[in-house]
Write a structure and sequence with these properties.
- There is one protein chain.
- The protein is an alpha+beta fold.
- The chain has 6 helices and 4 strands, in the order ααααααββββ.
- About 45% of the residues lie in helices and about 30% in strands.
- It has a 4-stranded antiparallel β-sheet with strand order 1-2-3-4.
- It is globular.
């Protein structure tokens, strides 16, 4: 229940479209995209450990094991678990957090926007601190 509540709160926080991106270096922008793409690749291979490694410490503590995390994604986030198409869109600031919008066509053919909240770690790396799915206009990538 705690995990569901956490994701509902994150969903509400990410529901608004991102504002103009705060000053983010091109290296950070590339790193953010790489982290998200790497997690998507891990999902494609059902590699729970790799997918888990891209989640922030707070997300990891919410789900406690890579296997529980992967099961949550399988059941609640099919568009990012098995996307047909992926296109990175706007990177913006929502309430002081960087949010990367990713247009995704799920396995059912429906387009969604996956809004990835990103968190910079003390070592300078980026991790995914949540993902909210919102309906996207019916369009192709």
């Amino acid at each position: 229940m705690r995990a569901i509540l956490g994701f509902l709160l994150l969903f509400v926080a990410l529901a608004a479209p991102p504002a103009a991106a705060q000053e983010v270096s091109s290296a950070d922008q590339a790193a953010i995209r790489q982290v998200i793409q790497s997690q998507l690749d891990a999902f494609q291979h059902d590699d729970a450990g790799a997918a888990w490694s891209y989640a922030s410490p707070s997300i990891q503590s919410m789900f406690t094991t890579p296997e529980i995390f992967l099961e949550m994604v399988k059941t609640g986030y099919q568009p990012v678990y098995r996307p047909r198409e992926v296109e990175f869109r706007q990177l913006g600031d929502v309430g002081g957090s960087l949010v990367q919008d990713v247009f995704v066509v799920g396995p059912d053919g429906r387009p969604v926007i996956a809004r990835y909240s990103m968190q910079k770690q003390p070592d300078g790396s980026w991790r995914i601190n949540g993902c909210a799915l919102t309906q996207a206009p019916d369009q192709n990538v």
